[in-house]
Amino acid sequence: MNRAANIESVVIKRTVFFVSDQTGITAETMGHSLMIQFDGMEFRQLTVPFISTVDKAIEAVRRIDRVAAEEGIRPIVFSTLVQEDVRNIVRGSAGFFLDFFDPFLGPLEHELKTQSSHMAGRTHRMADTHDYAKRIDATNFALANDDGSVLRDYERADIILIGVSRSGKTPTCLYLAMQYGIFAANYPLTEDDFESRKLPPALESFSQKLFGLTIKPERLQQIRQERRPDSRYSSASQIAFEVRAAESLYERNSIPVIDATECSIEEISSRILDRTGIERRLRP
Amino acid sequence: MNRAANIESVVIKRTVFFVSDQTGITAETMGHSLMIQFDGMEFRQLTVPFISTVDKAIEAVRRIDRVAAEEGIRPIVFSTLVQEDVRNIVRGSAGFFLDFFDPFLGPLEHELKTQSSHMAGRTHRMADTHDYAKRIDATNFALANDDGSVLRDYERADIILIGVSRSGKTPTCLYLAMQYGIFAANYPLTEDDFESRKLPPALESFSQKLFGLTIKPERLQQIRQERRPDSRYSSASQIAFEVRAAESLYERNSIPVIDATECSIEEISSRILDRTGIERRLRP
Question: Which residues of B touch A6 (CB under 8 A)?
Fold first, then answer.
């Protein structure tokens, strides 16, 4: 727990390369998970994607070596290179090389009693095409069933997020669609919905699919203030009323709820899946 | 290259757990990258997120052990557990345990001459809040500047994707927003735009920001056919005309172009960043 010590020490900036034979997203995810463990440090991050041939690998090595020479300190290289010939070339750069496959592929081959294909992701095109279609469908569904849309295709929805304006419904629905292929609709709770003490009529037959978002009034006010400064919409009293009314609606109707105030979209999405048990249609 | 051999062999199904102290997305990404290297195998995938305490770790171990006993073969456990006490408990399950941090954190600490914090992601709340706001801004921008919207805030756009209907503009813009915080607008090319041989007036001052999407007519026809079967919109001749006209517009105006036919959204997005050099505002 050297956290305090790290923060007080001088910030050292290191260059980090993400080298990949595909998009670089896995290498970025991997590298980022590790880098955030080093609180005191700053990193300059460069993504070098689509390094799928020996020629491109040599070019990537040149780029890494140039940075190493310029900065006088070797860059960190996070790589996800499946093809061994390509990986071994990049391994030979002046950078400090960490490949994602190195430590795991061997043990997994042994455990699964199967040789891995050592093929870059392009061999998985057919699966990708299928996933692509599922993701597009889910995204279109989220867009068509967003905040106040006329179309309310709740029959097809895996989940319906409800909450007051700016509580995070739209980005969460889109994330659920794009990341997991889930059909997520959302319904904005407005004053009309609070007048009666019952569920809005549009939602009545779908109570099992509802999931409530809530948010701390102070945070919501910041967000609304940016959007419509000094309006009724962004006033403390209006916001306090809406948030309280939404929360009591959730409680009366036994709707599960998550407080979005301090959660990232990923976290909200993942917690919703965890609590509802909805199956992912796609995997990253 | 045992690929053919693998495909022909009997498919064995193994259960895979993704255990994480956060959302599980990194563990899923890591596991997926490895699993797709084993073509012949099928995996049942279970995500166990938010394992951030010793009690939850013990519960996760019980779940893994139960599956091991039921299936008579040990499950694979991909974990991203930063806290050592939690990690060591899950390491003790009956599963075949691969933790993402194990092989990398030690070497990185040595290279960076810094102790890692060994703290679960929650300590990075402030950064997350900031990233959250950027992501929401970018997502709202993409939604407000989507296909045929009235608002065309191209001044603020990092990039403007153009293409015919259903060439993949909307999901790509949303992905660029959510994954990288990039402000991506899109403009649909229609017959009106093809009559003149010049850039559509709305785009004239922004030619440096344009990026074209194209798609093979056969694939586009499949997509449009699903949407409006047997219409002019989905007819072979109309589609061939539109795709040809769009491609010649790109060529005449030196607009970079990517063929989206066989690309995932991630790949289109990553290729666009790679070719334009647009800086990511967010990292995964």
Answer: 114-115, 117
Instruction: Give the Å distances, CA to CA, from B138 to A196, A204, B202.
Output: 36, 33, 21
pLDDT above 50 for A60: yes
Per the structure, how many domains does chain B have? 2
What are the backbone angles phi and psi of residue B63, rounded to the nearest 5°?
Answer: -65, -45
Tell me: the pLDDT tens digits for B209-251? 999 999 999 999 998 998 899 999 999 999 999 999 999 999 9
Residue of B247 and A132 predicted with greater confidence: B247
Contact B282, B179 (CB under 8 A): yes
- Between B25-35 and A25-35, two packed helices, what is the crossing angle to 10 degrees? 140
Q: Which residue of B has its CA nearest to A118?
A: B37
In a domain, B281, yes or no: no
A92 and A164 part of one domain: no
* Listed residues B119, B154, B181: the one ending a domain: B119
Containing structural domain, residue B57? 3-119
How far apart are the CA of A226 and the nearest CA of chain B, in angstroms? 11
Chain A, 197 to 236: residues with Cβ < 8 Å from chain B are none
Closest approach of chain B CAs to the CA of A201, in angstroms? 27
pLDDT of A282:
84
ipTM given for this complex:
0.84
Phi-psi region of B78 (alpha: psi -120 to 50; beta: other; left: phi over 0): beta
Q: What is the CATH number of the domain that holds B75?
A: 3.40.50
A132 in the same domain as A255: yes
Is pLDDT of A14 > 80?
yes
Residues A131 and A184 in one domain: yes
pLDDT in tens, B8-48: 445 568 999 999 999 998 999 899 999 989 987 889 999 99
Residue A133 lies in a domain: yes
Out of A69, A97, A119, a domain closes at A119
What residues of A are in contact with residue B50 (Cβ under 8 Å)? 270-271, 274
- Asked if the model's pLDDT at residue A122 lies above 60, the reply is no
- Residue A283, in any domain of the structure: no
CB A141 within 8 A of CB A185: yes
